[in-house]
Write a structure and sequence with these properties.
This protein is an alpha/beta fold and 279 residues long. The chain contains 12 helices and 8 strands. An 8-stranded parallel beta sheet has the order 1-2-3-4-5-6-7-8. Helix 2 packs across helix 3, helix 7 (138-154) packs parallel to helix 8 (172-188) and helix 10 runs parallel beside helix 12 (259-278). The longest helix is centred in the C-terminal third of the chain and has 20 residues, at 259-278. It is globular and about 50 Å long.
Length: 279
């Protein structure tokens, strides 16, 4: 099924519903488990992070009242998470990239294979993350992202475009201004719809024109390592923007919490994110 930009897809129900980023790959899963205070080995780390994600998804607070979609890694999809989320009427997006080169561009990956996998497993769309390491690489990154997004859209999937600017970038404000201009120009040149996932900006409402562009289904901010409170503060300063948080969503979740404690912490994080998205 293709998600089309009809009446803003009812603005995907409402702006406060956010995207849960649950797509850590094998290379970054260790960090997730360390923050979760869970011992692991290379052999069992994917099992353990899946158990953590199941605890999150099975919480009474993880509902489609608050969460529009989740971004998943291929391993998580293979373990049946799409069906679990579908029972909660939460859409899924597949992380399809294989990481970035040193300059922040996407490494080569089997695009057709990943698209076929997403369709076969009931995902509504895909996500690709590049890293803006300098102003010079911005145009190549966007050219690459939009070219692949066109292929994804042609396959009747909804692409999430994510050109991340890291939160400790000394030129973060400059790069964000450049990104806002170049993204708008790219959006004007396409005939398909996208979701934009961007680092929470230094200048409030810098991306509001992007959110209002007819080709943008939804604009979401990524937390990029900010604490939950800081990420939500920054999110609340931006209109027509909701979240796609990972670390800020799972902050304070530990393996030794009982299920009630775990759900309570997750519930507070979700409430903060929803409230910040609604401001």
């Amino acid at each position: 099924m293709c998600l089309v930009h009809t009446t803003g897809e009812a603005m995907v129900a409402n702006m406060s519903r956010f995207i849960a980023a649950m797509d850590h790959s094998g290379g970054s899963t260790g960090g997730v488990l360390e923050r979760y205070q869970q011992e692991y080995t290379e052999d069992n780390k994917m099992d353990l992070v899946h158990e953590m994600r199941l605890r999150m998804v099975n919480s009474e607070h993880f509902t489609n009242d608050n969460i529009w979609a989740a971004i998943l890694y291929k391993d998580t999809v293979e373990r049946g998470m799409v069906d679990i989320l579908a029972e909660k009427n939460i859409s899924t997006f597949l992380k399809i990239d294989s990481g970035c080169t040193e300059d922040g561009l996407l490494k080569q990956f089997p695009i057709s294979q990943m698209i076929d996998f997403a369709i076969a497993n009931g995902c509504k769309g895909t996500k690709m993350r590049s890293i803006v390491t300098s102003g010079a690489v911005l145009e190549p990154i966007l050219t690459q992202q939009f070219a692949i997004a066109k292929t994804i859209s042609d396959a009747r999937l909804l692409p999430i475009i994510e050109p991340e600017i890291e939160i400790d970038d000394p030129d973060k404000r400059v790069h964000e201004s450049m990104l806002a201009d170049r993204l708008y120009s790219k959006l004007d040149s396409i005939d398909y719809s996208v979701v934009l996932k961007l680092t929470l900006p230094e200048e409030s409402n810098l991306y509001i024109n992007l959110a209002e562009h007819p080709r943008v289904i939804k604009l979401v901010g990524l937390s990029g390592g900010y604490s939950t409170d800081e990420a939500c503060k920054r999110l609340s300063e931006n209109d027509i923007m909701s979240a796609s948080f990972s670390r800020a969503l799972s902050e304070g979740l530990y393996a030794n919490l009982n299920d009630n404690e775990f759900s309570e912490v997750l519930g507070w994080n979700i409430k903060k994110i929803v409230d910040a998205s609604s401001t």
